[in-house]
Write a structure and sequence with these properties.
By secondary structure, this protein is of the alpha/beta class. Helices cover 34% and strands 25% of the residues. Strand 1 and strand 2 (53-66) form a beta hairpin. The longest helix is centred in the C-terminal third of the chain and has 18 residues, at 210-227. It is globular and about 50 Å long. Mean pLDDT is 84; it is low at 1-13 and 15-35.
Length: 257
Amino acid sequence: MLDEWSRRGRTLDEHGKQLLKTLKKQEFSTQQLAGSDLIQLQDVSKTYRRGPHEVAALRGLTFELPSASFAFVLGPSGSGKSTLLQLLGALDEPTSGEITIAGERLSGMSASQRNTYRREQVGFVFQSFNLLSNLSAVDNVLVPFLPSGVSATLRSRAMELLKVVGLGGRLDHRPNQLSGGEQQRVAIARALLKRPKLVLADEPTGELDSQTGADVYRLLRDLRDQQQATVIVVTHDPTFIQPDDQILRLRDGRLAE
């Protein structure tokens, strides 16, 4: 990865290189048992009410994903892909069924615990980047921690992470001063700062050119390899799937054979 960035003119300073070495040595969350399944879904359904009608977004999903896996969720529009990510990220709750993350049932969490889970254990990367226009790149990386306060150490780590993803010269730039690929790398740095055990990416390269998209996937795979995070990507584009990746195909809210 370092060689690739260097070849393309995205060199890292010594702080960035040292941080990358540190990440490679980092232990996985103590809650995660080696070799166990990080994610377990049992008969999960999600139904939305639109006026007098009910719309079934997910219908009885049951599957398991091992820790440190890289998974793709594929399927046509309306198949339930984004709904699945929202449930895994505790942004919404299933109508029925059970979701277990690292041995803990999401349904058993209080509202406060769900907030902590989202803030500290899940990294979100979306097609729209979700950056705040009035904040610098550094402050956008720090957004998940702003409600609880940002220490000097945390701010320093955010700056170092931006150097790791090739944005060391754009720390004070706002989103409208960054290209689409640069904004996506800010979003990935934001996910890295959490040291998450689960990364959820919804069409992360949908608005990027093919080369920048390839860069984004390299960063996501580095996050999996260095921090043993489980990465789940929703996409319409199978270009970046590798042979050892996990594949979930959805159709009409069900797992397709």
